[in-house]
Design a protein that fits this description.
Elements: H1 21-37, H2 43-60, H3 64-82, E1 95-98, E2 101-104, H4 105-130, H5 134-143, H6 148-178, H7 184-215, H8 232-247
Antiparallel strand pairs: 1-2
């Protein structure tokens, strides 16, 4: 497959690449929980927490620009969801007029809080997904007792999203080669038809894959060539990261 998604930098020999995927999973969950529990008033704590993902990025041996470009692909969606919050009144809030437009201080605080927490959570998630083979990550989820239906859904979603992209690109190429000069309304109707056709093809492919997997005895378990091995180094990393996150409440 020629599409790049999560595995572009999965092959590496850095300290972060050699971490057990279960350690990275525990680290991400613990980090996000601490970030979520941090109130707006603790601004220094946000700076303190930002050190960990930046440190892991540096130890991974991957360009920081690569991580930031991934963040820039996702962050605009969060910004579009939250940028109107400062303009909505709150109970007892007094507006501040900027160019005649009322802006509420409590809304600004909520906007900044949501965005700071989202950026930190995205950073640690990007580090996890960029430096870990997706199959090993799924195996780690299975080992930590995440429900099998969730693991299987993620596995199929990741594997078949590339096939859907290829199918959509072939349909788009065929459309562009046959219909060059058409009114906008006609183009929209044909695009809607293509979306329906793509859905039907995807559904039929899913049925064929399901029958093929049943015929081969698929049990829902994720299989990897190299099994996960927890080392002493992973234990040291786990203790250090736990101490680091625990110290965040004292900052």
């Amino acid at each position: 497959m020629r599409h790049e998604f999560l595995d572009h930098h999965r092959e590496g020999n850095s300290l972060v690449h050699r971490m057990d995927p279960r350690l990275k999973l525990f680290l991400m969950i613990g980090f996000i929980l601490v970030v979520v529990m941090t109130p707006y008033s603790e601004k220094v704590r946000f700076l303190y927490l930002a050190v960990l993902p930046l440190l892991l990025m540096g130890l991974s041996g991957i360009s920081l620009w690569h991580f930031f470009t991934k963040l820039l692909r996702i962050y605009p969606m969060i910004f579009l969801i939250t940028f109107l919050i400062p303009f909505f009144p709150t109970d007892g809030g007094h507006p501040i007029r900027i160019g005649g437009i009322p802006v509420y201080q409590e809304g600004i605080q909520k906007f900044l809080l949501i965005n700071m927490k989202s950026v930190l959570a995205l950073f640690i998630s990007i580090v996890l997904t960029t430096t870990t083979d997706f199959n090993r990550l799924l195996k780690a989820m299975e080992r930590v007792r995440i429900p099998g239906i969730v693991v299987a859904t993620l596995a199929f979603m990741y594997r078949f999203i590339f096939l859907i992209i290829d199918e959509a690109e072939r349909m788009l190429m065929a459309f562009q080669s046959r219909y060059i000069h058409l009114p906008v309304w006609t183009r929209l109707k044909m695009v809607a038809t293509q979306i329906g056709v793509l859905f039907i093809r995807t559904y039929e492919r899913g049925e064929r894959v399901h029958l093929a997997m049943e015929a081969r005895g698929f049990t829902g378990s994720v299989r990897v060539l190299n099994d996960l091995v927890w080392t002493r180094r992973d234990t040291v990393w786990l203790v250090l990261c736990a101490l680091y996150l625990g110290m965040a409440f004292r900052v």
